[in-house]
Amino acid sequence: MTARLSGRQVTAQASVLPAVRHKVASTPSVLPDVRCLVRAAAVGYGIEAETTEDAVLVASELVTNAIRASAWPIALRMFVSKDGFHIEVHDFSRKKPRKSEPDLTMPSEPVPDDAPDPHGWGMGIVETLSRRHGVRNERGGKTVWAVLRIASGRRP
Fold it and tell me: Is the CB of residue 41 less than 8 Å from the CB of residue 79?
């Protein structure tokens, strides 16, 4: 895989392209910023549009889970290796995210406007869009990570 960095084309190797790391608050209001940060990193790495949009969704799900798990700041890290586009989210909770089945039944009564949104889609989305994903305990919490396949196509 090749990527454009500062106007020149380089071969993607773990030592060539620098990792990007951001610290964000543990609040839902950061999610639009997270999506912009992921898009900006993907553009910087020269990643094609389809993988970029998948990465935005994966990062949003991982950060949302971290927000639910911990009130402390969250670290978002992205980098490219020969395996693909890596997204890592660290929070200060040891509770591991789990895939669950959302309730898709139709309600028998009207749903109030203030009813909580259904949950349970996040890790299924991460599993579907990534080639690999996992969790590792570290630094007083955990890092949840995903690796997305990078197609050989160029960004339009």
Answer: no
Mean pLDDT in the chain? 84
Q: Is the pTM of this model over 0.85?
A: no
Distance CA 94, CA 117 (A): 24
Residue 111 CB-density burial (10 A; 0-12 exposed, 13-18 middle, 19+ buried): exposed
The tokens describing 50, both together, are 């389809």
| Tally: H helices and E strands in the chain | 3, 7
Q: What are the residue ranges of helices labelled H in the chain?
A: 31-45, 49-69, 122-129
Q: What is the dihedral of CA 151, 36, 44, 13, to 10 degrees?
A: -60
What is the pLDDT, as a whole number, of residue 149?
A: 94
Residue found under tokens 């009564």: 109
Residue with tokens 């993607």: 12
